[in-house]
Design a protein that fits this description.
By secondary structure, the protein is an alpha+beta fold. It has helices at residues 3-17, 58-69; strands spanning 22-27, 37-42, 49-55.
Length: 80
């Protein structure tokens, strides 16, 4: 699967699975060895994020967040 197809599928997963959440999904490295994609998920606009994931594969980045966001709120990651 091409990188563009993976990215389109990842964004489609976000729209399908995260109704009621706000999210920021970006591509770019902050260090040469850092992951290529990052995702931050918020429950309410402007509030604390409830999940943050990073990965070199956009689908893996999104899927790990979707899997984790289904956990009870007490188990969510505190983002910076």
């Amino acid at each position: 699967m091409s990188d563009e197809a993976k990215l389109q599928q990842a964004v489609s997963l976000l729209h399908t699975n995260l109704d009621g959440y706000y999210w920021i999904f970006g591509k770019g490295r902050s260090t040469p060895a850092g992951p290529l994609y990052a995702l931050m998920i918020y429950k309410l606009a402007g509030e604390f994020c409830v999940m943050e994931t990073e990965n070199d594969d956009p689908l893996a980045c999104v899927q790990s967040a979707i899997d984790a966001i289904e956990m009870p709120i007490d188990n969510h990651v505190k983002c910076h």
